[in-house]
Amino acid sequence: MKLSPRIQFLIKNGLKGFVWLLVILAAYFIFKELVLSYTPDAWIDKIYAKPMMVYLAYCFSEFFFGLIPPELFMIWAINKDTIAHYFMNLTFFAVVSYIMGYATFLIGQFFYKRAGFKRFRNTLLKEQWPLLKKYGLFLIIVAALTPIPWSAVSLLVGSAGYPSKRYLKYALFRFLRFAIYGYIIFQTHNI
Q: What residue ranges are annotated as transmembrane (predicted)?
């Protein structure tokens, strides 16, 4: 049975996302063993003493093409407090990601058909533009579930003139990503 190109695209990027998560977790565990185990107070106090800075950095990152992977913030949250607090943070991260994606989608819609933005789209988003033409709204689902830059795809989809209701419906897959990755991080942390 041959899989459709869309399903192949989803599987390929899903595997990339899983590998990316494993790399982040491995780097975290190595950092924890080699650095944090010798000077834990120096690092933990600086990061955990200013949670508002972490939340602002996350919001900034999610708006500007996911500069920092959300999984790093999940790792920060699991080490911060109780399990309930971790799941509240996870929910916060998912909601912010969804909202920031929609904000960039709206920016894309605002600039739809403007010549200056078309040049911007054709230079900075040149890799994602052919994917949008090939996969359409399916790209939203793939970007929501995988490491493809969420805000960039949202901006691209908005700049292509896709309807808001359809975008918002397919963007709900972003919550599934946070649930899956959050669960994996939770399980690996509690080993």
A: 14-31, 52-78, 90-112, 135-161, 167-186
Rounded Cα gap, residues 178 and 94, in angstroms: 6
Identify which of 99-113, 114-128, 151-165, 170-184 has the greatest average pLDDT.
Answer: 170-184
- 41-81 pLDDT per residue, tens: 555 556 666 788 888 888 988 888 777 888 888 888 887 77
Angle between the N-to-C axes of helices 164-171 and 138-145, in degrees from 0 to 180, rounded to the nearest 10: 40
Q: Six-digit token pair at 44? A: 């933990």
Secondary structure of 13-63 in HEC code, one letter for each residue = HHHHHHHHHHHHHHHHHHHHHHHHCCCHHHHHHHHHCCHHHHHHHHHHHHH
Give me the pLDDT at residue 172, please: 96
Q: How far apart are CA 123 and CA 129, in angstroms?
A: 10
CA distances from 58 to 45, 73, 116, 141, 187 (A): 19, 7, 29, 21, 22
CB–CB of 137/128 below 8 Å?
A: no
Q: Where would I find the H helices in the chain?
A: 5-31, 40-48, 51-63, 70-78, 83-110, 115-124, 128-135, 138-145, 150-159, 164-171, 173-189
